[in-house]
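Changelog note: in this version the structure field was regenerated for every chain. One regenerated record is shown below for reference.
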Amino acid sequence: MAVRHAARKTSGAVLSGAIAAGLLTAVTIAAPAAQAATTCTGTASVYGVLPDGRLTFSAISPSTGNLSRVRIGPALGFEPKAMATLNFNTVLVTSTAGALYRVDVLTNNNALEVSGVVKIADSGWTHDKLTYDGHGHLYGTTAAGTLLQYLVSQDKPAGSQHIGQRKEIGTGFTLKTLAAAADDRLVATTSDGRLLSYKVNADGTWDRDDLKPSGWSAFDQLVSPGGGLYYGRIATTGSMYWYKDANPADGSGTDITYHNDDPVTAGGWTQKLLSAQPDTFKCTTSVDTVDRDNISEVKAAGRNMMNTYDAGWANATQWDCLERLWDRESGWRWNADNPSSEAYGIPQSNPGSKMSVYGDDWRTNPITQIKWGLNYIDDRYSTPCGAWNHSQETGWY
């Protein structure tokens, strides 16, 4: 992480003179936010089941939204109800009779070939929807709106010995669509058109963020291969649309890019079920350069680092607490020096030299200071809001 020192240029004086002379109209330009360098890799792999029971596979280019491969395979041999893709060659599908099947895909390259369809449970799988997060957790909803979580311990589970630890997460999950977007993170739509994001915590509790209040009611299928990509199918037209969430963990939908004028296809998606292979598309974001004297850039870097430090912190509530905390402590200034103590820097480490464990440049680098500050908050208060609440009560943290 490099620190860019603020540049001083004479062009500002020239521009001021031109404005004074009436040659230009004075315009106030807001300082740009920190630019994050994002590297995305992978593809979107989507399995489906046609109305006649045949399995399908589609590959989509994440950067363009274009279809790169479509394959149609054999019929499953039963009436499917819900499906979840575990990995590139294993798909779980339930039947309308409540049985659970494992579909073993041999290849989806030049043709879609299946090596076997194995019933691994005779009954009990009456879920309306299924989705797998790619990190060991299978999620399902019931007709009554209960969200259930299961632990999948094998790439090719053979039964209850490999799909167990059933946990009831909560009720009220009456959803139109459901997809896993990341590790224990779900994205869903409702009949009234809301786009929702859920974070399921390790203790079984959950947090919900309303990404969009309306506009998503037309989709009857929603899938995500990870990396903030969402694909929605409209049943009435068979069209597939794609969307990119710049930060799927921030609890906000304001950074979702719509591609409504450039759908994946305008028709042809007639599958009754769709399921994306998880984690086939990933994005890594880092702030490459930060002007240490530009508070907006420093804050943007801080938020990105907070989200990366702990996925449980990656929401608007925790960011609000961290921003307020360090607004009060230092104004997010790298050189904030407390005259009455040895506290120094953005997090006001006391003494400032404690931050040297994260770098010898702790006196001048806001990134080094933020790293230390996040670790300090984690050790002492568990979350930024824990630190902020303590600061509100005592005046320090």
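Spot check on this record: Residues 1-37 have pLDDT under 50 and may be disordered. The two ends are 27 Å apart (CA to CA).
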